[in-house]
Amino acid sequence: MAMQNSVNNMSNWLSLGPADSGDHWCQFAVNGVNKFRQGVDDTDNTYKISIGNALGTNDTSVTTHYGEITKPLTPAFLAYLSATASNVSGDGTAYTVACNTEVFDQGGDYNNGTYTFTAPVTGRYMLFGSIYYITSVDGGEQIALNLNTSNRTHYTTSLPTNERLAGFYGYASAIGISYTVLAEMDAADTAHSTAAGDSGNKTDDVKGDATTVYTWFAGYLAT
Amino acid sequence: MAIRNNINNKTEDITIDPGASGNAIFKYAAATVDFFATGVEDADDSYRIAPASTVGAGDIYITTSAGEITMPLQPAVLTDAHTEDANVTGDGTAYTVAFPDEIFDQNNDFATPTFTAPVDGRYHIQVELQVQNGATGGNVESVNIVTSNRTYYVRSLPCNEQLAGFLGPNAWIGITNTCFADMDATDTVTIAWTSTGGAKVDDVKRQSFRCLLVC
């Protein structure tokens, strides 16, 4: 016979309910130090897993009654180039795409001065990059956008520039290039984007703007 | 001395075991309402979270006994259609693309042409179009992801009007765009396709929209 617990006198379930307003939760502590708390936050009736000893503060997972799950502290970032970078490639120079404006940076793992994401934990990361590359008359003839991680370089896309296809779509035009990569990264590994146009002069630009997102770098810890 | 709990007389753990078949559940409940249940579904030995008094129906989160995790109610959308929208741009018109055929729409957040964020979060958004440029249509194209907070712009390949020597007239071109967007609850996403430099004779031939709440 199953043993009935002494909280709600049931064998197959245990219930926490304050019977009035207030959170109801289960606390996990080690040697007197509160590590994690899980339970329902009475303010919005969401189920939360939180670091420490309070629901609603340092929540790692928030589940609504409709089934949406958010993870407010999981590594995730989006940054973009806020102004056009001129004469950055065309001669083979690998231009580090300078996404200097952060839209969000959960975890604080993106450096908008070095344009580098550093993995805080070992895992699989979904990383995205996109550039708006403007070629000039004497600029490069083919361009590539690479994702450079500590483990490997993901050589993503190469397209002919308008120098080569000038007869079709004219000089000083632009090409959009993007990648999506699921990358394995160890803790402290880094990732950044580079763009390079070659076989010409260093007269090509990468477009940026303060409001519209033309050139950007983003990612999140997937699993 | 550590205090032993009075459920299973342990200091470091609490075990819920019905001692026979049946779910093993931990409930977080108010006076009259079961808010959430977490625990093991006896039918398949999975660990689940449900907004109910037990697990096994309307589950939000499922971890199988092999470790796979799914979130059946997480906002996630896929549409895929071969529906022609004729003469929608080419003259610079920003055409808001319709996505008529839903393959799935977990949480019911999409109603063509708009996805509406149900909660604050970070959303992975993708779009893929196949378009056909008429002989007098536009020469330069862009597919923009337009969110309430900002627009994500992508410049396309030159259209077949300009590449007629390669592709021939009226060929199709595939254009994609992706972003990882910050959205607040009730913020919206639509897709705008713009083709410029010609007449309004360019068509959408195939359209697919994908969106996922990531975190």
Describe the protein in words.
The complex is a heterodimer of chains A (223) and B (215). In chain A, 2% of the residues lie in helices and 51% in strands. Chain A has 223 residues and is mainly β. Chain A folds into two domains: 6-70, no CATH class; 76-221, Jelly Rolls, CATH 2.60.120.40. In chain A, the strands form three sheets. In chain A, strands 7, 8, 10, 13, 16, 18 and 19 form a seven-stranded antiparallel sheet that branches. In chain A, strands 9, 11, 12, 14, 15 and 17 form a six-stranded antiparallel sheet that branches. Chain A is elongated and about 80 Å long. The mean pLDDT of chain A is 88. Chain B is built from one helix and 17 strands. Chain B has one helix at 164-167; strands spanning 24-29, 34-41, 46-50, 61-63, 69-70, 76-81, 85-89, 94-96, 102-106, 110-111, 114-116, 121-132, 140-147, 151-152, 172-183, 188-196, 202-213. In chain B, strands 6, 7, 9, 12, 15 and 17 form a six-stranded antiparallel sheet that branches. Classes of the chains: A mainly beta (223), B mainly beta (215). Chains A and B meet through strand 1, strand 2, strand 6, strand 10 and strand 13 of A and strand 1, strand 2, strand 12, strand 14 and strand 15 of B. Strand 1 of chain A pairs parallel with strand 1 of chain B.
- Anisotropy-based shape of chain B: elongated
Count, helices of chain A: 1
Assembly of the depicted chains: heterodimer
Mean pLDDT score of chain A, rounded?
Answer: 88
- What's the architecture of the largest domain in chain A, going by CATH? Sandwich
Major sheet of chain A, described briefly? 7 strands, antiparallel
Give me the count of strands of chain B: 17
Radius of gyration of chain B: 25 Å
pLDDT averaged residue by residue of chain B: 88
Chain pair with largest interface: A-B, 61 and 70 residues
The chain-level structural class of chain B is: mainly beta
Span of the ends, CA to CA of chain B: 41 Å
Number of domains of chain A: 2
CATH class of the largest domain in chain A: Mainly Beta
Tally the helices of chain B: what do you get? 1
Unreliable sequence segments of chain A: none
What is the CATH fold-level name of the largest domain in chain A?
Jelly Rolls
As a percent range, the share of strand residues of chain B is over 45%
Distance between the termini of chain A: 41 Å
Q: H/E element string of chain B? A: EEEEEEEEEEEEEEHEEE
